[in-house]
Design brief:
Elements lengths: L18 H7 L29 E8 L7 E15 L2 E10 L12 E7 L2 E9 L2 E12 L8 E5 L2 E14 L2 E12 L4 E9 L3 E6 L4 E9 L2
Antiparallel strand pairs: 1-2, 1-12, 2-3, 3-4, 4-5, 5-6, 7-8, 8-9, 9-10, 10-11, 11-12
Amino acid sequence: MNGYQTRSWPAKRRGLACLLAILLVTGVGVGCGDDDPSHPLIGGEDVMPLAVGNTWHYAFRMNEPGAPIIPMSRTILEYREISVDDRTVTVAVEVPVPDETRKAEWTAGRLLRNEADGLYLYGTVDAEGTHLVTAPRRLVPNEGRVGESYELGGGRLLVCVAADSLVNTDFGEVSADVYVMWLDEGTIQIPDIYMVPGVGLTLFSYTTQSTTWLVDYDFD
């Protein structure tokens, strides 16, 4: 189906909701952002480069025989200044590429910002306007450290299980940090989440439901 070589994690696996819907759209995360409003949006150590025009091309497929592969892309549209706690912060507006066939979870745009310790969500955008989160929420650190975990709220825990792990992708071999998401009852919600520093999200997979993987990307 794709070039990724996934690992076998503990047997208990259950997919309940889309990772992007949980982490990146609804903004469930951990920590608070750097208070320096001039912190760069673009940097070599950032897990997700946020230059205007950067585009990620994904493919989605249900894990069932004969299921079609659905292409979907997202891009950095513009920078926008927002007011957070009486200070002005510049965020990147990340949105679906128009006219793409995509899952409903991918239709909302997001207000993202790279801080010194990771990628943060500041809000979402949709046809009804801009919706800021109560407090900026870290989605993922810039660098994975094996064994470190992050409370995500709602009984969810993000755990780094491998760092700098070589994986084969549609665009070549890359070094990825690998995470799993646990529920508080001791089951794995999402067993394979690959983040490639300098590229972003490259894979997340439900064993019994679906897989989404990065096919290619265009960075300015």
